[in-house]
Amino acid sequence: MDATVVPAEADRKVLVRLDAVEQLYDRKIRILGPIDLEIREGEFLSLVGPSGCGKSTLLRIVAGVLRPTRGSVFLGDRLLEGVNRSAALVFQSFALFPWLTVVDNVALGLEARGLGVHERLKKAEKYIDLAGLSGYERAYPKELSRGMKQLVGVARALAVEPELLCMDEPFSALDVLTARTMRDLVLDLWASPQVLTKSILLVTHSIEEAVSLSDRVVVLKANPGRIADMVDLTSLPRPRRSDAPAVREVVDHMYTLLA
Amino acid sequence: MAKEWRPLPHAPIAMVFGLLEHLRDASGGREDLYKLGGPLGLELDDLLPVTEAAKQLGLVKIASGDIELTGEGRALAAAEAPERKERLRRRLFELPILRRIREALQEAEGGRVRKQEFLDRLEEHFSPTEAERQLGTALDWARYGELFDHDPDTEEFVLPS
Predict the structure, then answer these.
(1) Which CATH number fits the domain A12-86+198-258, given the four candidates 3.40.50.300, 3.30.70.2190, 3.30.70.1140, 3.40.1350.10?
(2) Looking at the whole model, is its pTM more than 0.90?
């Protein structure tokens, strides 16, 4: 391959591979799977579907905080056992520590990674700045709006410089206007050369959100959770306006699959 | 009420940006106000503060049921993050409560004034609960624009370090 050519989506390095992953309840009722899925380097991948389709379960399996009943998770060639240290999580509920300031909340994850205090603060400052939170360093979570709280959650996750950022319904506790500006911000951060994290896994119940953000969208059906379709959107340039005909067409397709 | 203490609407900054972006993508940078309610799903308690905040900052004009970006609103909606912050910072000086706190801090020794002093001033115009809320919103916006900060150890407002 010519060295100057960007590798096609399908040729990119695989970060995480799910191999016939299944989740059973009480060892007999199938909730999810079997699912085969690859998350590739540099891609923005979304899991979209109704409640009960297992999208959050899949995200937790990728993050290594939930062990699947059957099947395997690989990081590159290595079998994942325990927590996935190359991933960081952002939660719908923000999950900030109320007794810590913004800068301490962001620096917290870095302590667990064994960084010294000076390094921790430097890195926390960098990501606070990139997230547009400078000025709020000394604020406590209760003083922040919901949108700003979620920005702290994103800055905290990015600060550990994970290969993969896993976001579980990060915008669904926000009003429509705040959610809109937060989506733009996440795309800006993802595109920023200063942010080292280049792969994002997003779980959402909004088809419009998945289509506006992602390179690929995995559409999941419920009972049991299974993949209905995998839609490649790499050819749709961003920003994607919801009224653009190509966007409408993809959104319609996904609603039709699920209806 | 004296114009110098015009109340701040309790709208988060991020939501104001969301409104600007929404209007930027609406045709002609203009939208029927009611469409922010029903079709977009904003409740009145969200919609009114955010439109009022954008208006006080000089970023939108509201007339005969329409809301429209001003020139500055357009520039802000189009700007990238660092420029956005700088532009909004300049607009924040238009808000009397923020400007007066900032000026008081600049005149004070060490750039510090007890929060209680501002509360006392505000309580001449607002109920104690509302005075506290006004200061909370002022601080939130001031932090975004890096106009001033709050030191919880001493209960003082301070110029940013």
Answers:
(1) 3.40.50.300
(2) yes
